[in-house]
Amino acid sequence: MAASDDRWIRERRQKSKDRRARPERRSGADRRLEDRGPAEAERRSEEDRRQGDRRSGQDRRNEAAWQPIALDAAVVTISDDSALVAAAIDAREFAHARFSRFKVGAALETDTGEVMTGCNIENATYGLTMCAERVALYKALSEGKEIFTRIAVVADTGDPTPPCGSCRQLLWEYCGDVEVILANLSEVKRRLRLSQLLPLPFDARLLE
Fold this sequence. Notes:
The protein has two domains: 2-55, no CATH class; 82-207, Cytidine Deaminase, domain 2 (3-Layer(aba) Sandwich). It has seven helices and five strands, in the order ααααββαβαββα. It has helices at residues 2-21, 28-35, 37-55, 82-92, 132-142, 165-175, 194-197; strands at 104-110, 115-119, 148-155, 179-183, 188-193. It has a five-stranded mixed sheet. Helix 6 links the parallel strand 3 (148-155) and strand 4 (179-183). The longest helix is centred in the first third of the chain and has 20 residues, at 2-21.
């Protein structure tokens, strides 16, 4: 049995030597690195072409596209924030936040002074959670509202609770450079324009 074991070991060693003696096969990574040469060149060519377009002024993006959307047609009918903030506080009570326990209320004002409210509605997957700002916006749009002046966002926090990135994008798309009022349950913490929260927006002007 011992001799048989020794022979098996010698055979295994010889096979290992034979494999090492062969030309080494390229690894998958090496093949990919070598094979992508032409594609890499094409990408560089494409990048050079894009840079050339920008230098020649053909790029559709320009500084003018980042200017805030004007709301000339909007007429603010409520001079103070108290009514709008109060509506957001009331909406917050209906929030469905059993996972995060973080309740948010929002109140969106139209150019005629109407107020549409919303609260955050969570989902177990989290990805399907809907923010208060978007709920208020969707309600307003679904009822034919088109021009908006202000939105109040309320949470039970010491610091201001601004809209998330997705909400900022949608608010910019449908509301323009509206005033954003950030408050907690007792006071207004911050007032600012949406263009301050989303200074370089991607919007329909870039698709022209």
